[in-house]
Amino acid sequence: MHLVIVGGSDAGISAGLRAKELEPDVRVTLVVADAFANFSVCGLPFYLSGEVPDWRMLAHRTLPELEAAGLEFLFDTTAERVDAVGKRLHVRARDGSATEMAYDRLLIATGATPLMRHIRGLALPGVFPLHTMADSFGVDEHLRAQPRSSAVVIGAGYIGLEMADALTLRGLEVTVVERAPSVLRSLDPEFGRLVQSELERHGVRVHTNAEVEALEAQSGRLLVTGRPELTIHADLVIVALGVRPATELAQTAGVELGSAGAIRVDAQMQTTVPDILAAGDCVETWHRVLGTSSYIPLGTTAHKQGRVAGETAVGRSTTFAGTLGTQVVKVFDLVAARTGLRDADALAAGFSPHTSAFTFWDHKQYYPDARQLHVRVTGDRRTGRLLGAQMVGSKHSEVGKRIDIFASALFHGSRIDELEQLDLSYTPPFSSPWDPVQMGAQGWLRDVATGQIS
Ligand SMILES: Cc1cc2nc3c(=O)[nH]c(=O)nc-3n(C[C@H](O)[C@H](O)[C@H](O)COP(=O)(O)OP(=O)(O)OC[C@H]3O[C@@H](n4cnc5c(N)ncnc54)[C@H](O)[C@@H]3O)c2cc1C
């Protein structure tokens, strides 16, 4: 059996390794457009900040490790077309030579493509998306080529904010421009404002309700203009406007597309075309709380879907359990995290949501360095079911792991009152007898019981 995988990142590698682990006799060939298999693109901002001094350290596994696991690679090779009837993949090497390869099963793990729209001048030198290893090398070379003093980041999603943090650490003056009224739109605006204050505390200028329209080269620098009355000079521009699923190859195979134009897959990561699987940022993702497909491209999901696809490819019947959209981001000394639904998503999905907001100490206040932790809990008023949670707090307050408690409860469809009974660990330097997660649950129950709801 020959499993051919297009894509050598989170989804593709997870699938290949799992297939080999279960069936060592399966031949697994990965076709990869660049030469960087299994690198952690999530680590790119930390390489560019200098916190990770060498890009090679971003390898989840080295090439010899991957080859020792039995994976074969065709690097610098782009898959251009799938003949789904003849089960052949048409590929082109960087030198222009075209070949075709036969497959028994094909996995499309082509990821996503950065959105680069609506702005004039995006092709100018000094303007970069941040999506691939090559993008990060471009940014690094640009910064090293001559002294640079300032940068504009377009888009205040998590990648934009990680880059604002990274470039500030690298000594640049950074301006973030965001079209929405608050940064980090995946959180409620109240929490977006806390994150904005943290950016400003570290010298980052933030323009919300602002839109970049054009970039121009001017005296060796870039002129960034837009609405309302936006005029900024910069040496570097990072474009972080989000991504769209990379489905061009899949479409040549005739697969159906689903949510947000991503490849439609079933729970075993099978597309609508026989023997063609797909996983990662190019596919739609089942949402466990919504009970529908969604598009939430994340590395955590890509790893899981890839593993399931690898199992399916060798005849197992594992299924992908679905996403909750759990995310965490560090912005300077602050961490923001979320899982599940927010009010508006929950309302649109037919729930009767209520969100309660609280501020607690992250551990017993008498023990040094207690810090405030902001928590928002969303639940369904009719059933008491937990629907989602958001948290913002210090990077020392275990925000990410605390949101994971909510995520675990959400995964199991828990009611909010059940959170109260969780047997969580406690010692004064780390928590309280009631962890802030449980205090949030109790507060939500109290608000709903006493009618203090919006
Ligand atoms: C800067 C940054 C930070 C991030 N931080 C986080 C984080 O903290 N947490 C998190 O969960 N997620 C994070 N993500 C998202 C995460 O990296 C992606 O969800 C994940 O990499 C998706 O994996 P994938 O394998 O589906 O696709 P990708 O990583 O996009 O890889 C696609 C692969 O397909 C190859 N390819 C594409 N088309 C072809 C073709 N036609 N022929 C041959 N090869 C092809 C590419 O070369 C690549 O190897 C971050 C992303 C970025 C860019």
Jot down its keywords.
26% helix; five-stranded parallel β-sheet; 29% strand; 25 strands; binds flavin-adenine dinucleotide; alpha/beta
Structure description:
This protein has helices at 10-22, 44-48, 63-68, 133-145, 158-169, 189-201, 248-252, 299-313, 343-348, 399-411, 416-420, 436-449, and strands spanning 2-6, 27-31, 71-74, 77-83, 88-93, 98-102, 105-108, 112-114, 127-129, 150-154, 173-177, 205-207, 211-218, 221-227, 230-234, 236-239, 243-245, 276-278, 285-287, 292-294, 327-331, 334-340, 353-361, 372-380, 386-394. The mean pLDDT is 97. The longest helix has 15 residues, at 299-313. It is built from twelve helices and 25 strands. With 454 residues, it is α/β, with parallel strands linked by helices. Helix 1 packs parallel to helix 8. Strands 3-2-1-7-18 form a five-stranded parallel sheet. Bound molecules: flavin-adenine dinucleotide (FAD). Flavin-adenine dinucleotide binds next to helix 1, helix 2, strand 4 and helix 8.
Q: Can you lay out the helices and strands and say which pair or pack?
A:
Blueprint: E1 2-6, H1 10-22, E2 27-31, H2 44-48, H3 63-68, E3 71-74, E4 77-83, E5 88-93, E6 98-102, E7 105-108, E8 112-114, E9 127-129, H4 133-145, E10 150-154, H5 158-169, E11 173-177, H6 189-201, E12 205-207, E13 211-218, E14 221-227, E15 230-234, E16 236-239, E17 243-245, H7 248-252, E18 276-278, E19 285-287, E20 292-294, H8 299-313, E21 327-331, E22 334-340, H9 343-348, E23 353-361, E24 372-380, E25 386-394, H10 399-411, H11 416-420, H12 436-449
Parallel strand pairs: 1-2, 1-7, 2-3, 7-18, 9-16, 10-11, 10-16, 11-12
Antiparallel strand pairs: 4-5, 5-6, 8-17, 13-14, 14-15, 19-20, 21-22, 22-25, 23-24, 24-25
Helix pairs in contact: 1-8
Flavin-adenine dinucleotide is lined by residues 6-12, 31-34, 41-42, 44-45, 78-79, 109-112, 130-131, 159, 246, 249, 280-281, 297-300, 302.
